[in-house]
Design brief:
The strands form 3 sheets. Strands 3-8-10-9 form a 4-stranded antiparallel β-sheet. The chain has a 4-stranded antiparallel β-sheet with strand order 5-6-4-7. It contains 15 helices and 10 strands. It has 4 domains: 43 residues, no CATH class; 193 residues, 3-hydroxy-3-methylglutaryl-coenzyme A Reductase, Chain A, domain 2 (Alpha-Beta Complex), CATH 3.90.770; 101 residues, 2-Layer Sandwich (Alpha-Beta Plaits); 45 residues, no CATH class. By secondary structure, the protein is α+β, with helices and mostly antiparallel strands. Helix content is 49%, strand content 19%. Helix 5 packs across helix 7 and helix 8 crosses helix 9. Bound molecules: (R)-mevalonate. The site of (R)-mevalonate has 9 residues, from helix 9 and helix 12. (R)-mevalonate binds next to helix 9 and helix 12.
Length: 422
């Protein structure tokens, strides 16, 4: 039987589930039951979620947790986090508390501009194109007036339109490279609408528009988060040795790409969790962050460490294109609640909070890696998952959790203990 289907999106939800269960599963009833188990009993709320995408069958839960005690520029925040990784929220909370007694996080937004490009082909003389662009430039701004009107009222809009000759890389290839300020919105729809209006106005018989699209590379929409304290205040058995090893770990990530990717992945554990909780676009943030990590031609650490005059300083520079208005931010009730929890921040403030979450996560990972090793904390947090996988009951869970207090958890160790108790 052919499984290619036409008009799937037009089917009702029930018909879609039935078709899916019939064609791709052996246990049709159980499949439909599992899908239905995640429906929200509030029909209006379910409809809201159904409408986010096409062919919604149900919802997919991820835990929503909070990390308190984030002291950022002298304000204390409780940071909402959505993630499936057991240790992320625990690590963020621990490190937030640690730095709250050492001056907290200091953050600075270094830039907020974003880029969009109209990519086009032109085979004529480049001087003629430059002349055409110069005569057209004010028209291009005018062509976007109806789109930019509201944004301009909020202090944003198009900041600059440049003509860029790329013919040395690809024959006949030019761009209109446009700089935007989108204030509290992430601005993807705004930028793309402006670009299409510009492209329509700019095209002529000799100019073939290939595409118009924003760039997720946002090196000038950048934020810095930093922590620092006297080395002696770092605590532990030997804070000087700790600071040294920590410094080495960051240095390794700045020169060794295999390590840098994992190092930055740890940063993104913190960043993505808050990006998701606030209804922002984590794919855009991921793409932009990793591109920024490669800006010098080699993939490097996004964070830096300095030890100077007895002071330990650790900081992170990361590009973050975020919105606190528009998109899902007010539509998804949990994203809305997350933003309320953060005192309804501007996009700039949210950049700062999220960068602090990224730095905290990186600090937690490096502290664990350079001292006890990562598995100690990871497996402790993962213990409940293993117990759930094994189908342990409440009493077994309690006994096994108590048994592993102060010990390093391993999968085989938990299985052995579970068997022993049975
Ligand atoms: C795991 O999700 C993240 C870490 O691997 C990050 C790191 O190695 O720095 C622990």
């Amino acid at each position: 039987m052919s499984k290619v289907i036409s008009g799937f999106s037009k089917l009702s939800k029930q018909e879609k589930m039935d078709w899916l269960a019939e064609n791709y599963f052996n246990n049709e009833e159980a499949v439909v039951k599992t899908i239905q188990q995640y429906w929200n009993s509030d029909e209006q709320l379910q409809q809201l979620h159904d409408d986010f995408i096409e062919n919604t069958l149900t919802n997919f839960y991820l835990p929503f947790g909070v990390a308190p005690n984030f002291l950022i520029n002298k304000e204390t925040y409780v940071v909402p986090m959505v993630t499936e990784e057991s240790s992320v929220v625990a690590a963020a909370s621990l490190v937030a508390k640690f730095w709250s007694t050492r001056g907290g996080f200091k953050t600075t937004v270094l830039g907020t501009t974003k880029i969009g490009q109209v990519h086009f082909m032109y085979a004529g003389a480049s001087d003629d194109l430059i002349a055409y662009f110069n005569t057209k430039k004010s028209d291009l701004y005018a062509a976007t007036a109806s789109i930019t009107q509201n944004m301009e009222k909020r202090g944003g809009g198009i900041l600059e339109i440049e003509l860029v000759d790329k013919t040395d890389k690809l024959e006949h290839y030019y761009q209109l490279h446009i700089t935007f300020e989108t204030k509290d919105s992430m601005g993807a729809n705004f930028i793309n609408s402006c670009l299409e209006a510009v492209a329509n106005n700019f095209r002529n018989e000799q100019i073939e528009i290939v595409m118009s699209i924003l760039s997720n590379y946002v090196p000038n929409c950048l934020v810095r988060a930093e922590v620092s304290c006297p080395i002696a205040d770092l605590g532990g058995d030997d804070p000087y040795k700790f600071a040294d090893k920590f410094y080495q770990a960051v240095k390794i990530a700045s020169i060794e790409p295999y390590r840098a990717v994992t190092h930055n992945k740890g940063i993104m554990n913190g960043i993505d969790a808050v990006v998701l909780a606030t209804g922002n676009d984590f794919r855009a943030v991921e793409a932009g962050a990793h591109a920024y990590a490669s800006k010098e031609g080699q993939y490097k650490s996004l964070s830096f460490c300095e030890i100077d005059n007895g002071i330990f300083k650790f900081w992170l520079d990361v590009p973050l294109a975020l919105g606190t208005v528009g998109g899902l931010t007010s539509l998804h009730p949990m994203a809305k609640l997350s933003l309320e929890m953060l005192q309804n921040p501007s996009a700039k403030r949210l950049m700062e909070i999220i960068a602090a979450a990224g730095l905290a996560q990186n600090f937690a990972a490096l502290r664990a890696l350079t001292t006890k090793g990562i598995q100690h904390g990871h497996m402790k947090m993962h213990l409940q998952n293993i117990l759930n996988q094994l189908g342990a009951n409440a009493l077994q869970k309690e006994k096994i959790t108590n048994y592993f207090k102060g010990k390093t958890v391993s999968h085989s160790g938990v299985v052995a203990k579970f068997e022993e108790l049975k």
